[in-house]
Design brief:
By secondary structure, the protein is α+β, with helices and mostly antiparallel strands. It is built from three helices and nine strands, in the order βαβββαββαβββ. It has two domains: 2-97, Ribosome hibernation promotion factor-like (Double Stranded RNA Binding Domain); 107-185, 2-Layer Sandwich (SHC Adaptor Protein), CATH 3.30.505.50. The protein is globular, with a radius of gyration of 20 Å.
């Protein structure tokens, strides 16, 4: 597994990098045979250290965890524990569904944009209804089953996930509702 361990405006020593590699490798190897890479970023938030970890699996799924603590090692250990818990749940769901993916998840390219938030005032009308694009990136849309999409959304900690439904070959959306349940949008194809 490839590791990218970095710090935002803080120095990361070799001892911490070795600790991260050993502990994260042990946690992930319990639940996944072929993790591809891991990205771990340390930063400061006032008096606390923040650790964000992202692990890409060979199945195409991505697990993300974030934790903070007053010490940098404690922040990583809490993040690693969250990651291990997510991986354990992921593995249990795979066993419960009795489905093992024989091929990696197919990914399709798509454009992704970040739009500027406009401050609304009551007395000023906007000049245009076109939003201002701040950034333009490329993103990947995975081809998954609905159950895998829900797992991916939960592993990534995202509120919404767009995916190509393997069974119907159309774009679908899963999202977390305000009541805590999961919503699924499956558009009907016009015939």
């Amino acid at each position: 597994m490839r590791y990218q361990i970095s710090g935002k405006q803080i120095d990361i020593g070799m001892a911490l990098q070795t600790h991260v590699q050993e502990e994260l490798n042990a946690a992930i190897k319990k639940y996944s045979d072929n993790p591809i890479d891991a990205n771990v970023i340390f930063s400061r938030d006032a008096h606390e250290y923040v650790c964000e970890a992202t692990v890409h699996l060979s199945t195409g799924l991505t697990a993300t965890a974030k934790a903070s603590a007053t010490e940098i090692y404690a922040a990583f250990d809490a993040c690693c524990a969250k990651m291990e818990k997510q991986m354990r749940r992921f593995k249990r769901r795979l066993k419960d569904h009795h489905r093992v993916r024989s091929e990696p998840v197919e990914l399709f390219g798509a454009a992704s944009y970040i739009l500027a938030a406009e401050e609304q005032t009551d007395d000023v009308e906007p000049d245009s209804l076109q939003p201002i694009i701040i950034a333009e990136m490329e993103t990947k849309i995975p081809s998954l089953s609905v159950g895998e999409a829900v797992m991916q959304m939960e592993l990534a900690g995202a509120p919404v996930l767009i995916f190509r439904n393997e069974s119907k070959d159309g774009l679908n959306v899963v999202y977390r509702r305000e009541d805590g349940n999961i919503g699924w949008i499956d558009p009907q194809v016009a015939t």
